[in-house]
Amino acid sequence: MKAIEFELAEASREAIELLLDDPDDGRIFWEVFEANQTSAETLKLLYEHADTPDELREKVSGLLHMPVPVNTKAVVVHKAKEQESGEQKEERLTGKIKKLTVGEKIRVSMRAGKEVRNLLLKDSNKQVVLGVLGNPKITIPEVEAAARSRSLPDEALRSISRNREWMKNYGVLYSLVTNAKTPAGIAMGYLPSLKPRDLQLLQKNKNVPDALRAGARKLVAARKKNG
Questions:
Q1: Structural domain boundaries in the chain
Q2: Are the beta carbons of 204 and 193 closer than 8 angstroms?
Q3: Stated pTM of the model
């Protein structure tokens, strides 16, 4: 999916908070600052955020005419976030995602860190899911989990199958082939790449289409015949 430029000066507070709370890299703090130097609300968000780089917080403090906190990790507004559990953080991030427009979700998906990416992969809009798959920071384990997901739209599964680098990974390949939602025509093409044991298991797997099981049986039989 072609990258869509994220206009940080026009982004909602929720979108910016998602990028700061789960960044793909530290540059996003500086990018938000550069795009919002006249926005007191966004500057205050940067000032209070526990992960804002000290050098940047000093610049923000000057613009807001506020003192630089002595202990930046004890900034009041964001201190509670450091104490929350993984489940609480997921709930908080999910709440912010729900407030975004589809367009913002797509833009956030291409810049977000792992936690937000994983949440957006569950989105009902296929363009949002494709946006996550287009994130340059997405990892092979994330792609493998996506290829295994039965909630992923067909277009997303097709997108994974077209990525040669991803399909070189056996975990991704196996997950895609054994996903009941993967179009049979795509899964059939990768049958010869399965390991013998996995191919034998697939021919008995009732969770995949009949055509795929039949294809696996034929391939197993052909390999036995050929020795």
A1: 1-137, 139-227
A2: no
A3: 0.85
